[in-house]
Amino acid sequence: MPAPLDNPARAALLVVDVQRGLDDVDHWGARNNPACEDNIAALIARWRSEGRPLVYIRHDSVEPDSPLAPDLPGNAFKDVVTGEPDLLVRKEVNSAFYGTPDLHAWLQQQGIEEVVICGITTNQCCETTARMAGNLGYRTLFAVDATHAFDRRDLDGGVIPADEIVRVTAANLEGEFATVVPTAALMD
User: Fold this and answer.
1) Would you call 44 exposed, middle or buried from its count of C-beta atoms within 10 A (0-12, 13-18, 19+)?
2) Which of 6, 19, 84, 174 has the most C-beta neighbours closer than 10 Å?
3) Which CA distances in Å does 91 have to 57, 88, 109, 129?
4) Strand 99-100 to strand 87-91: parallel, antiparallel, or no bridges (unpaired)?
5) Is-contact 36 145, C-beta < 8 A?
6) Domain-by-domain residue ranges, the chain?
7) Does residue 15 contact residue 44 with C-beta atoms inside 8 Å?
8) Which stretches within the chain are classed as H helix?
9) What's the CA gap between 103 and 118, in Å, rounded?
10) Bridge pairing between strands 179-181 and 54-59
11) How far is CA 90 from the centre of its chain?
């Protein structure tokens, strides 16, 4: 398989919301992909070893009952998010492009045209960021196995399993907003 990155040295890794509060099963419910954090750690290590642009995104929730509120321990990054990024974006909504500082402006200033997205959750902040990146003209790669989702209730009260949510998210993104790839393809 050919390398999925057009310009690996200039491809920014966007690590979205890999925060401790997302381990709160009582709040979020059951999740999929227990290998998610290992894949994120591998991507971070690879980007750092190659000196590639690394962006961490943190959700500073304004919801009163959220474990991601800035004054709670759940706001902190998980242990797999190591070292200092080139940019830390704080946001209160789903898309990393609506945070502080301005991600799009920073990517433009750095001459970055290609982004790789990983993090939590597949179908919310990661997908929203990928859709916006694609709309803004970035070549966007979505490291699907370096994301995870939670089971969700459907409108009829049934449960949509997290694996199904990830499958549908990948299908929605592929070819329209992003190229969906496994972590292994980004490590070559």
Assistant:
1) buried
2) 19
3) 7, 10, 20, 11
4) antiparallel
5) yes
6) 8-187
7) yes
8) 25-28, 36-50, 103-110, 127-135, 162-173, 183-187
9) 15
10) unpaired
11) 13
pTM value is 0.96
Query: What superfamily would CATH give domain 8-187?
Result: Isochorismatase-like (3.40.50.850)
pLDDT tens, 21-64?
A: 999 989 899 999 999 999 999 999 999 999 999 999 999 999 98
Burial per residue of 120-145, b for 16 or more beta-carbon CB atoms within 10 angstroms, e otherwise: bbbbbbbbbbbbbbbeeebbbbbbbb
| Residue type for position 110 | Q
Residue ranges for the chain with pLDDT beneath 70: 1-3
Whose structure tokens read 């961490």? 56
